[in-house]
């Protein structure tokens, strides 16, 4: 008989013996599997039992076993019950192991690769990077995920024929990436046109718990808000959450030597443009005079009324025109006085050297009202302060809605080189507001005061405006209102007790013959100088708050 037949016959005998053995020992296997499951159940119950209950449990178990032992044929019945229970528990074979969880990178990056394929796949490309049956590893070179499984960094390649110089083509890719990676975060897109690579990074949220306070800045420097660490090379100490930390600020430098002497802030309604204007006013008040025009007429800046250094706060068209006409005359007076001081080589007067700030909130509302009444446009009166304000130490800040940008005059749009955009905005809106393309895709929902800033010809950076609420708003948190009140120049009788006024004599003191005016012996009291009663701060306008000065 050939050898291969002996081998095949031997294999058949071994297979038959194995089948008979498995049939013979199948009950034992079932019972053994059931005993293992009983043991696992007992172990799990023991581990789940609190430590203070394990002693009584052991005592009850021992008592039950002793009772079974003392019963007639108790051990036999217990053994039969145990075998039957084990056979019942082990009747079903061990379930198959659960398949391993899919890799997060394979799921999310695969979906992103498939979403980018229609935009980056060329029909005539012989070796395409992106095709419908391809793998994301051929185009994605590096990626990172955070602890929550969300995409935080990604580097990918794209074909050379992709039109990466066109903003519309870039916007399509950025929209697809943000949709697949999550619209709740902001992403920075770094397009490397030379090597055809795109680097994407999810940006960490900016702090929103920084309130209004005195910032460490020189006179003429305004802290617009705070940004990322790579957005500026400077940090300042700020009070945040009850502790002093270092935060990178967005600083706007004003004054005669500034290349961006005026600011234009646009924003979506409800995202804090008025809060930004209050923050700027509080920082400028210690060293400058203010003229505030509230075009919306909502009373957002009523806390500045009758404050030292605030000439006026106007909400009506008549008052706004009067205030801006005075500002034009004051600018001309300052220019004439400065030129005269330069020609004579003398120091300019103090009232000329002290900066003057014109703060306008929603001036387009007043412009529409002026056009309806046939009166001069308040924005036209800003032309002289905007064009010659840097030499005259006059700074103009204009804040308005993003939708009202087209209603701003060309002079306002061209002379305000410091720009701020608050709230989520589209690609074209961000480019028009900041004057440069924005390489950051805004999140779908942003907190109040979140936006972007661009100073001069710099790169746009993210911005979070410090919380500067209206102290007269009863719905605002008390701690935020107190922070703003603490920065105001003097107390306001509407929110705090009025300060004590110095005594004022009813008539001027007499001059004695010896030339000593009002001289009295030590301890004597002037009988003609009674102390006048203390009056609270009067917020009414009984006389014009702006007084015209003659042009010298």
Distance between the termini: 133 Å
Q: What characterizes the major β-sheet?
A: 8 strands, mixed
Number of strands: 17
Strand content: 15-25%
What order do the strands of the largest sheet run in, or round the barrel if closed? 11-10-12-13-9-14-16-17
- Which shape, going by the Cα principal axes? elongated
Mean pLDDT: 83
The chain-level structural class is alpha/beta
Helix content: 25-40%
Keywords:
14 helices; 17 strands; alpha/beta; 552 residues; eight-stranded mixed β-sheet; 36% helix; five-stranded antiparallel β-sheet; 17% strand
Q: How would you summarize the topology of this molecule?
A:
Blueprint: H1 3-24, H2 26-48, H3 51-70, H4 74-89, H5 104-120, E1 140-145, E2 151-157, H6 167-181, E3 186-192, E4 197-203, E5 221-226, E6 236-240, E7 243-247, E8 249-253, E9 263-267, H7 273-284, E10 289-294, E11 310-314, H8 317-344, H9 350-353, E12 356-361, H10 363-373, H11 383-392, E13 394-401, H12 410-415, E14 418-422, H13 427-434, E15 440-441, E16 450-455, E17 461-464, H14 478-485
Parallel strand pairs: 9-13, 9-14, 10-11, 10-12, 12-13
Antiparallel strand pairs: 1-2, 2-4, 3-4, 3-15, 5-8, 6-7, 14-16, 16-17
Describe this structure in words.
By secondary structure, this protein is an alpha/beta fold. 36% of the residues lie in helices and 17% in strands. The chain is built from 14 helices and 17 strands. Strand 3 and strand 4 form a beta hairpin. Helix 5 packs antiparallel against helix 6 and helix 8 runs parallel beside helix 11. The protein is elongated, with a radius of gyration of 40 Å.
């Amino acid at each position: 008989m050939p050898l291969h037949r002996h081998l095949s016959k031997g294999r058949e005998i071994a297979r038959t013996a194995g089948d008979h053995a498995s049939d013979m020992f199948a009950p034992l296997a079932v019972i053994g599997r059931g005993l293992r499951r009983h043991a696992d159940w007992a172990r799990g119950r023991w581990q789940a039992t609190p430590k203070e209950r394990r002693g009584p449990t052991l005592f009850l178990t021992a008592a039950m076993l002793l009772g079974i032992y003392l019963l007639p044929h108790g051990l036999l019945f217990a053994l039969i019950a145990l075998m039957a229970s084990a056979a019942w528990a082990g009747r079903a074979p061990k379930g198959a192991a659960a398949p391993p969880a899919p890799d997060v990178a394979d799921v999310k990056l695969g979906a992103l690769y498939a979403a980018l394929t229609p935009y980056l796949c060329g029909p005539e490309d012989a070796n395409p990077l992106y095709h419908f049956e391809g793998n994301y590893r051929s185009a994605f070179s590096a990626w990172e995920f955070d602890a929550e499984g969300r995409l935080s960094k990604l580097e990918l390649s794209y074909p050379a024929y992709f039109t990466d110089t066109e903003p519309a083509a870039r916007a399509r890719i950025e929209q697809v990436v943000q949709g697949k990676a999550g619209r709740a975060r902001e992403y920075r897109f770094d397009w490397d046109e030379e090597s055809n690579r795109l680097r994407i990074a999810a940006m960490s949220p900016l702090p929103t718990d920084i309130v209004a306070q005195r910032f460490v800045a020189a006179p003429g420097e305004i802290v617009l808000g705070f940004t990322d660490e790579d957005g500026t090379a400077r940090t300042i100490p700020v009070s945040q959450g009850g502790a002093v930390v270092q935060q990178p600020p967005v600083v706007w430098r004003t004054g005669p030597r500034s290349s961006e002497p005026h600011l234009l802030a646009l924003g979506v309604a409800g995202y804090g443009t008025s809060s930004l204007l209050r923050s700027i006013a509080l920082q400028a008040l210690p060293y400058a005079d203010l003229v505030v025009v509230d075009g919306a007429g909502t009373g957002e800046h009523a806390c500045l009324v009758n404050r030292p250094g605030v000439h006026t706060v106007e909400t009506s068209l008549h008052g706004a025109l009067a205030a801006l006409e005075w500002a034009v005359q004051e600018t001309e007076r300052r220019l004439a006085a400065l030129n005269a001081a330069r020609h004579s080589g003398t120091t300019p007067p103090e009232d000329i050297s002290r900066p003057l700030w014109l703060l306008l909130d929603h001036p387009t509302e007043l412009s529409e009202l002026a056009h309806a009444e046939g009166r001069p446009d308040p924005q036209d009166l800003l032309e002289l302060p905007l064009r010659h304000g840097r030499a005259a130490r006059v700074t103009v800040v204009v804040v308005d809605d993003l939708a009202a940008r087209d209603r701003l005059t060309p002079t306002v749009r061209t002379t305000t080189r410091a720009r701020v955009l608050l709230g989520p905005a589209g690609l074209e809106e961000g480019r028009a507001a900041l004057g440069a393309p924005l390489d950051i895709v805004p999140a779908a929902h942003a907190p109040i005061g979140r936006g972007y800033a661009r100073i001069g010809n710099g790169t746009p950076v993210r911005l979070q405006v410090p919380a500067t609420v209206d102290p007269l708003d009863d719905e605002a948190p008390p701690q935020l209102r107190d922070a703003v009140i603490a920065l105001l120049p003097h107390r306001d009788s509407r929110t705090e007790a009025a300060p004590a006024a110095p005594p004022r004599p009813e008539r001027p003191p007499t001059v004695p013959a010896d030339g000593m005016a009002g001289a009295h012996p030590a301890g004597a009291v002037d009988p003609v100088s009674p102390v006048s009663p203390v009056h609270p701060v009067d917020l009414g306008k009984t006389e014009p708050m702006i007084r015209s000065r003659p042009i010298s």
